[in-house]
C-alpha cells in the first residue's frame, strides 16, 4: 500500500463524454462508420439489434474475454454485480434499491459502456429511430418516399443514456409527452399523432432511461409509466399512440420507500423484472479504495489518514445514536478526505511549506464540516460533536494498532517525560514539529521505525507519521495532551 493518495473525481457526476472508459480500459472515441444512406447501410451488412441484445452481447463478450464491464465500481464484485449481470442477460428492467451514497447512480451510468459504440439513426428523426424500423408517422413517410436514399446519421452511445431525478413536480409531459399547442395551431387536429411533443422516455428510444429516486414521482406519474414498461406504447391526453419503443428502463430507490407502505404503486413495482439491493463497502480496503478513487484532493493525504476516515465512516454507520435509515453516504468519507487535504494546503500556504501533507491534527476540521451530512436520532441534540469526536478517537486508535503495533515507544515516551513538549497545530510547519522532538539521539531509532512502517519518506510525511504515534500514545494514556487558545496542540 502506498503512503499517499491523490485521486481526481471520475465520471461519477455525469454521463461519460467523448473520451470515455469502455469495459475497464481507457480508449478514445473512434470515428463512426461511413454509410450515409439506407442503401449504403444495407450494403455494409449492418444488422439491427435491440438495446437488450446490444447490452447482453457486449456484456457476454466482456466476460468471455476477461474485461471488466464495470470500471470504477468497488466492493460489489461478489454481491451486486453478479445479480445485475444476470438481470441484464435476461433483458429485465431493473430497479436498484439502496441507501444514499451506495453507488446506485454510478452503476446506472456505467451501463452506457455496454451499448454499441455507434448506432445508425434516421437523420433528423425526433426519436432517433433505426433506419430499418421507423416508428413515427413522419419517419415512416420519409422512409417510404426516399427508400434507399434515406439519409442516416450515427449516434454515439454516450448520447443514448438519459437520466431523470424524480421530484414531486415532475409531470406526465416530462416523462411521456403532451400535446404541442404550436403544432395544433399549425392546423393539425388534436387526434393527429404528430401533434405530440415527446417526453424523456420516448426520446430514449433505442437507449437507456434511468429514473433516480423513483418513489418520489407522484402516483399519477407512476401510472403513466405502466403502459410504457408493459405495452411499450404511450398514452397522451386520452388517446394512444402505438410506438414499439425499444428502451431499457432503470431506476433507483430507497428500500424504505419502495414498498406498498411507502410511495410506490404496486403495479409499477411489478413491472420491473429485477430488484437488486446495493450496500456500503463490506471490507475496509474497499472503503479506502472508494475514497482514493473519488476524492478530488488538493494536497497529499497519507494512506493511513484515508484509512482513519474510512474507519470513522464505518463506525458512524453502526452507531445507535445516528439514524441508519438515512444512511451514512460514501460522500461522507470522500468529503472528509477533501477537507483534510484542504486543511493541509491551507497550512502549507500560510507557513510557506514546500509540500502540503495532511496530518492527524487536520482531522479535527473534519468533524465540524461533516456533522451536517448525517442525521442523529431524536434525543441526541447537543451531543453530536461529542459522539463524532468519540468515533474519531476510536478510528485513530484502530489505525495506530494496525500500523504501529509492536514498535517499542518507550524511548519516545521517556524523551517527552524528561524534555520539552512537542507542539503541533494547523499552523505548525512539519520541520518545526520534527525539530521539537526532544532527545534526537535517543528517539531516532523509534522514529525511523515509525516512518518505515508508514512509508513516510518526505519531511511532511514523517511529521504526519510522528503525529499519529503521538496521538496513539495519548489515547493509550501514556502521555498527556492539551490544546491552547491559539489552536496549538501540545503533547508531553
UniProtKB/TrEMBL annotation:
It comes from the Bacteria. Residues 1-11, 19-28 have a biased composition (Polar residues). One of its GO terms (biological process) is regulation of DNA-templated transcription. Residues 197-255 form the Sigma-54 factor interaction domain. GO terms for molecular function: ATP binding; protein kinase activity. Pfam families: Sigma54_activat. Residues 1-38 are annotated as: Disordered. InterPro entries: P-loop_NTPase, Sigma_54_int. PANTHER family: PROTEIN KINASE PRKA, PROTEIN PRKA. This is Magnesium chelatase. It comes from Gordonia lacunae.
Amino acid at each position: 500500500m502506498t503512503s499517499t493518495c491523490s485521486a481526481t473525481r471520475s465520471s461519477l457526476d455525469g454521463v461519460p463524454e467523448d473520451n470515455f472508459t469502455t469495459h475497464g480500459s481507457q480508449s478514445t472515441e473512434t470515428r463512426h462508420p461511413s454509410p450515409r444512406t439506407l442503401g449504403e447501410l444495407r450494403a455494409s451488412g449492418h444488422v439491427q439489434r435491440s438495446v437488450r441484445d446490444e447490452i447482453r452481447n457486449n456484456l457476454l463478450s466482456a466476460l468471455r474475454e476477461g474485461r471488466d464491464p464495470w470500471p470504477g465500481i468497488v466492493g460489489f464484485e461478489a454481491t451486486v454485480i453478479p445479480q445485475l449481470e444476470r438481470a441484464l442477460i435476461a433483458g429485465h428492467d431493473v430497479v436498484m434499491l439502496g441507501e444514499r451514497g451506495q453507488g446506485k447512480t454510478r452503476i446506472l451510468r456505467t451501463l452506457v459502456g455496454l451499448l454499441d459504440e455507434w448506432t445508425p439513426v434516421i437523420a433528423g428523426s425526433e426519436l432517433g429511430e433505426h433506419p430499418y424500423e421507423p416508428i413515427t408517422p413522419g419517419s415512416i413517410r420519409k422512409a417510404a418516399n426516399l427508400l434507399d436514399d434515406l439519409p442516416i446519421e450515427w449516434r454515439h452511445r454516450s448520447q443514448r443514456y438519459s437520466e431523470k431525478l424524480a421530484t414531486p413536480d415532475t409531470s406526465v409531459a416530462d416523462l411521456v409527452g403532451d400535446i404541442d399547442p404550436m403544432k395544433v395551431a399549425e392546423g393539425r387536429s388534436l387526434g393527429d399523432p404528430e401533434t405530440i411533443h415527446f417526453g424523456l422516455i420516448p426520446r430514449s428510444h433505442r437507449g437507456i432511461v434511468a429514473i433516480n429516486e423513483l418513489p418520489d414521482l407522484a402516483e399519477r406519474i407512476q401510472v403513466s409509466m405502466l403502459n410504457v414498461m408493459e405495452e411499450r406504447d404511450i398514452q397522451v391526453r386520452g388517446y394512444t399512440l402505438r410506438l414499439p419503443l425499444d428502451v431499457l428502463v432503470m431506476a433507483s430507490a430507497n428500500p424504505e420507500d419502495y414498498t406498498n407502505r411507502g410511495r410506490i404503486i404496486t403495479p409499477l413495482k411489478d413491472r420491473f423484472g429485477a430488484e437488486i439491493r446495493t450496500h456500503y463497502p463490506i471490507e475496509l480496503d474497499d472503503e479506502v479504495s472508494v475514497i482514493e478513487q473519488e476524492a478530488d484532493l488538493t494536497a497529499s493525504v497519507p494512506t493511513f489518514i484515508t484509512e482513519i476516515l474510512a474507519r470513522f465512516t464505518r463506525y458512524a454507520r453502526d452507531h445507535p445514536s445516528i439514524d441508519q435509515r438515512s444512511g451514512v453516504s460514501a460522500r461522507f468519507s470522500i468529503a472528509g478526505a477533501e477537507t483534510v487535504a484542504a486543511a493541509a494546503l491551507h497550512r502549507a500556504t500560510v507557513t510557506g511549506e514546500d509540500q502540503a501533507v495532511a496530518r492527524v491534527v487536520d482531522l479535527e476540521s473534519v468533524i465540524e464540516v461533516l456533522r451536517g451530512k448525517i442525521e442523529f436520532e431524536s434525543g441526541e441534540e447537543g451531543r453530536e460533536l461529542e459522539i463524532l469526536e468519540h468515533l474519531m478517537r476510536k478510528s485513530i486508535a484502530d489505525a495506530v494498532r494496525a500500523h504501529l503495533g509492536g514498535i517499542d515507544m518507550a524511548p519516545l515516551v521517556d524523551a517527552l517525560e524528561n524534555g520539552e513538549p512537542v507542539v503541533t497545530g494547523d499552523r505548525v510547519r512539519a520541520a518545526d514539529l520534527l525539530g521539537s522532538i526532544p532527545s534526537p539521539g535517543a528517539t531516532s531509532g523509534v522514529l525511523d521505525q515509525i516512518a518505515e512502517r508508514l512509508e513516510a519518506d518526505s519531511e511532511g510525511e514523517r511529521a504526519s507519521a510522528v503525529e499519529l504515534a503521538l496521538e496513539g500514545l495519548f489515547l493509550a494514556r501514556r502521555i498527556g495532551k492539551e490544546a491552547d487558545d491559539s489552536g496549538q496542540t501540545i503533547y508531553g
